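Hi, can you check this record?
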Amino acid sequence: MSTRERPVEDEFRAIEQAVWAAPPHRLAEVANRLVGRYANGGDAGVFLVDYPQAFLVPTVPGRPDVPVDNTFPGRAFASQRIVQEPARGDGGRLVHLPLSVQGERLGVLTVGLPDGGPGWLEDFAVVLARALKLADPSTDLFRRVRRRTRLTLAAEIQWELLPAPSCDAAEFHFAGQLEPAYAVWGDNFDWAASEERLTLTVSNGMGSGTDAAVLTHLAISALRNARRSGGDLAEQAALADQTLFARHRGERHVSTLLLEFDLATGRVRAVDAGSPIIFRVRGGAAEEIGFDAQMPLGMFGDTLYAVEEFTVEPGDRLVLVSDGVHAALSPSGVPFTRSALALALRATRMQEPPEAVRTMIRHFLDFHEDAEPVDDAVIVCLDWTGRTDESISGGV
């Protein structure tokens, strides 16, 4: 399907204008109507991925949820490619187009077409994905659609705190996931990118329930405040440490691993303030990157945090996990890190970070043999591609 075969320019401009003019809560409905009118498409539907990224959920009631695994729409979502189902007897077919914005995978647009369909549908999917991303903060509709069961209050706090769960940039590809998605407590991750650097943190708030979620929220807010004020890693950790200590006097703390990537050189500055750990996969071999252990945030309020360094090279993969992952035990008492984590890292070596994270989460859940994990968990995967002449000039 060519991306350049558009309808008459004025017609496509009218389609775009209709998308941008749609009220946020009616955006999916308007998109379905536009596809039917301009592409002669029937059975049009916008499907959003649920919180655990296991199902694609329709935005219009009455249609069934679709598993991501082993389905045509799921294949479009996982591969981020257009998938056409086999033609029916009348020559028509269902076409599934991924909806994503800068590497953040939102869902799938499914359209029933009498033939292969117009080439501009791919461009339409790009416009629609951007509109969905911008509309999301203005309505509860998409958040309601994405939850197949009720979130706990703690999970609501944590998901609202998260930035985009994945991103594609010239220098890196990144994805992260919380588990269990509907009942996460104090585990979280945060990231922010600029022209010069990427800052990435994985945090684990002490305790469970809303107490842990509120504690983590306070810590990440303090880290962001320091970062946005121009503070370096040590200053970010120090402010969060002081903020938590002032509130809890050392009785509650947050374990955090802070990383800052120099996008031009691959040099990484790190502050290890607790239990999250990091693995580097290079040339097919995985190794844990060790740091000098420092106090979790909030223990004493006056800790002077030391910054350590390491370097990533193009082709490196970094996997960050909270203690809910690396300290997990199977029902028979076997540590997850002994063999299961290494197996998960090998099984995902050819997958892009979003799919790698989904696969590692499945390995993590299978490891528990149908038993509920005793702690919540975060898995973050980052592939380093490095800066090229094209990325320096602004290309992606």
